Amino acid sequence: MTSKKRKGDFMEDRLYYQDPYLQEFSTSLIEAKPWGKNCFALKLKETAFYPTSGGQPHDKGYIGDLEVLDVFEEGDDIWHLTRAVPTEAELNCKIDWPRRFDFMQQHAGQHLLSEAFWTFCQATTIGFHLTEDNLTIDLDMESIDNETIVKVEDTVNQIIWDNRPIIKHWVAPEDLEKMPLRKQPQVDKNIRIVEMKDYDWVPCGGTHPNFTGEIGMVKIRRWERSKGVTRVEFFCGQRALQDYRWKNEMVLDLANDFSVKDKELADSVQRLQEKLKETERRFVESDSRLTEFESEKILKEAEIWNGIKIVKGSFDEKRDLSGLRKLAINLLKTENILVLLVNAETDEKFLFARSADLDLKLNKIYQKFKTELGGKGGGSEVMIQGSLPENIKGQDYIEAFIEAIKNHVDL
Fold it and tell me: What is the rounded CA–CA span in Å between residue 122 and residue 108?
């Protein structure tokens, strides 16, 4: 069923279909036109540059000394985006082969994986996403378990290691019924079927190696439910090797840090997590007791004004707003209390709060106070927080705020 090139065929000027391994070729310029900002679209007599199509990104490389930025189709024409128009009559072109072969590995691996998921789960591949650093398929299934993932991986990799031929067929519509297609083509002319020998038959216009062994291997990295589909992320060939390499280095480094073998690392990490949880629990308990102690200490030093306990705290050690808030919340368990806390030595933060039984609108008082003395912050009637102004000490800021409260007309 495989058709051969004929003069005037759709495939005659698409050298990547005649030989997907072709890395260099010579041709001539047919047409050039301005395209976008400071770019030109070139149409060549023939081309080995694959255009973005069917989920596979475009090739890169050079036309003469001009870098190919993009390759795309318009109708039956293929256009190559460059920064200038070449002047040579004969153009020597070169494909970015590592990029091309990477896409060939990933795309062919995707075919095998999609067929395996159909075989084991009757899951149809409804999305394919291939970029320079990411590779996923979307399956129309609710969920998948690790046992099925292992079966799929084992099956696919065995077919790769069988080194089966990958055959490309150019067929007429009437030939399709003779083929066990995984899905039907979306075109009615120039139909190309890619066959993984005795396993998968699918319409596809992408570039693929000639044998499954060139895929190297397929490794599923993760899977998740996303936007109504199950998205499976995986790597093939060189990408799988690179992914394994950095992960292996990381595992060995961590195992060395723990002074264990790599297979014992998971147990060591689990034990460390348990210790950390226990340490955190004890820290929370100790911190809570310390907060109680601090609260009792500064509460004894509270000033009484108009029936209100005014608690003032200025801290020299580093304590962020979260720490000030924790102390304030503990103090606010006491009735008729106004808590004024600052950390002026480091973060230069303040937190002022009052108990629920006091009729003070701290945010409104602060607005007038801020206009006169400066600072940045805000909050509610019950609690305000923010940053101190540059030219005032924390304790002075507290005293000034107390004076503002005493002079507040609504008190």
Answer: 20
**What CA–CA distance (Å, rounded) separates 398 from 403?**
9
- Helical spans, DSSP H, in 195-320: 237-258, 265-300
pLDDT, one tens digit per residue, over 126-157 is 999 999 999 999 999 989 999 999 999 999 99
Same domain (yes/no): 161, 219 = yes
Q: What is the pTM of this model?
A: 0.74
Q: For 186, what's the count of Cα atoms within 13 Å in the CB-facing half-sphere?
A: 3
In this structure, are 268 and 143 located in the same domain? no
- Give me the amino acid identity at 377: G
Q: How many C-beta neighbours within 10 Å does residue 326 have?
A: 17
Residues paired with residue 24 on neighbouring β-strands, in sequence order:
94
Q: Could you list the residue range(s) of the whole structural domain that residue 72 is in?
A: 15-95
The whole-angstrom separation of Cα 378 and Cα 376 is 7
Both 113 and 238 in one domain: the answer is yes
pLDDT of res. 343: 84
Instruction: Please tell me whether residues 91 and 105 are part of one structural domain.
Output: no
Both 74 and 171 in one domain: the answer is: no
Judge if 365 and 388 occupy the same domain.
yes
DSSP state of 400: H
**For residue 21, what are the CA distances in angstroms to 175, 339, 384?**
27, 76, 69
In a domain, 342, yes or no: yes
Position 333, amino acid = K
CA angle 335, 336, 339 (to 5 degrees): 95
- E strands, 75-123, are 77-82, 91-95
Assess whether 70 and 139 both reside in one domain. Answer: no
Asked if 401 and 354 touch (Cβ cutoff 8 Å), the reply is: no
Number of domains into which the chain is organized = 4
